[in-house]
Amino acid sequence: MKYFRFLCAILAIIGSFHLVTSDAIENLKTWKHAEEVARNLTEKPVIERKLEIVKNDLQMEVLAQLLDIYVLNSTNVTCRQASDSYRDALINFEPWALKMLDASSKLQAGLIAGNRIEFGAFQQCIDVEAITDHNGGGIRGKHCTIPVLPSERMLKKIFSYRGITEKAYKNRKSVYYNVTYVWSLCMPDACGPKDIIEHFRSTVNELVDGLEVTFLDDEIKCKTYEDIDEAFDGKEITALSIVGILMIVVGISTFMEMYKRYYEIDRKGYETFFSIIANTRYIFQYNKNHKKMACLNGIRVFSIMLVVAGHRFLLGFFHSNTNGFEALDWMLNLTSQIILRGTVAVDSFLMLSAILVSYNFFLQHEKGVPFNLPKFYLNRYLRLTPSYAFWIFLVVCYSHRIGKGPEWDSQWYDVQQPCKDYWWSALLYSQSYVNPKEVCILQSWYLSIDMFYYVCAPVFLILIAKYKMLGMITLVLLYFASVGANFGKAWERRYPVQALVDSDLVHSDYFTEFYTLPHIRGAPYIMGIALGYLLFKTRDKKVKMSPMIVTIGWTLSVIIMFSVILTNRVYLDEDYKFDRFSNAFYHAAHRSIWSLAIGWLIWACVHGYGGFVNHLLSSDVFAILAKLTYSVYIVHMQFQFYDFGAMKMGGYFSNMSWIQKSISDVILSFVMGYFLAVTVECPIYRLYLLMCGTRRKPEPSA
Length: 702
Description:
- This protein has 702 residues and is mainly α.
- The protein contains 29 helices and five strands.
- A hairpin with a 6-residue loop joins β1 and β2 (138-150).
């Protein structure tokens, strides 16, 4: 019963207009009985008057209790005066005061199902405005969220009501460990968090005495209309001017392109470099010479879709859902493992990147083109950085202005502040080692890994080109060093396989000291360099494989892919007992095994054994979309943060609803990625090629 009192105490913490004392309940019973008797009395008018008096007394008693909870009792003079005005207005049923009361949280249904967050009516609260005589001024609504942290023992008890045993909780506790229950209070803007703390300590402490809950005083957040409708400062105006200038340049360049096309004038020249028409043409052009390796396009597109969907689901676990704890049940579904272990899509990207770097290097080497190391690095930097830098610029300057909601500030502080502090390490692609706990553009940790190995790649490639055996031995040694570091770290820290599903993932040791470190994630890239070399050596040869070898290859590839994904379910089972070796081995091996399966897929498709799979992956549609995958990767997660940060009421977690949102994310991200590519990425890289004296037409970054 003690634990059930927690749910009841929540009612007292935030208040409910159903809260009455035992005396009031007795009065209510007395009144109902008296009403029944009165109908049989001849002196009905007299009795009705007496009943009305009793009834009014009861209503006033209930109202008094409501006022004790919802109206702050503060020693702050300004707050107390505003609260007195609010109290008087409620007693007189004035509309503005009723709106404030109505906008405050009440005890919501589904607490045991995980309905942890009740935002009240955010917009209704901050829209309240009233002129009062009590304090000689006006009152505006202020919306505040009040977090309450239950102990782990309390959470276990709540989960037990859902049939989740102690064993099952241990295997899945990272999902909701240290999560809070959050309610809101709408109050006069003269009051603040300190007044809330003072009021609740004096009002409800005795009601939660003995319960294992903690008020998180430092995390009370308040918002008023003035906080949302802030004027633009000088930096924002300057930034807006820069964006405006870019749009003007794009508009003029596009107009010049149209003008020259209409009058059949030579369209060469700087004035059309920022033309949307010209850059769209580059995106839709497809080089038929790359047809043999076109399957990489499909893999790239499917991988980015899985990444976007995975981020939608994982972010959704830890935001406001009316059935939040059902995610614990969802995790046990076999189909859910596609999302939970969909992180292997990143390993696919690393492998594809390495294949292209290796293949193109040896292609140029065979043609006798001298290797220019500065140009090698500059080429990559200017392919990736303009779009990346521009997106960081927008996030720093404007992300806080594109929405509003109870969690908006805290949501965008976590997104925006790292870019203000560490934009420089982001542009140097060194965040994995410099600021792993405060990553600017959260998903860009991958870029740090990719750039790290791109910088190191010439060492491997030149060794293989000049001393083939020595180069291959070096690759093998580096591969085992990376796998060994992976195993050793997982063994030392006892990382469970499902560690990625964590309510505080971004700041966890697993994410910052393991998951995002280049030397831990190196195996797929090293395997990609080797495969790129093999594809180069066999590019003009007919590789013959017997039907049995092809069948075995495809069968093993499919089995490996499903095994890597579905094995994750074993570690979530209620009866699973943590085994240090098996968890460390899975961490060390599964990325290599996945890359091996992807490697077979690419090898088979390139050499004519891909069948309908190659036909699908090599589609011209994917050839176009693949050119936008880098931009999609850069922008997609900020749209998801926007969606969650702007929430004003809880959503409902389900496969269908999140799949629909994921599809929406993919479409929106490709649209935004297209505009980023044609206005920033393509024009700047075309200028770079022109300055280098190169006439080849660029494609957006892979």
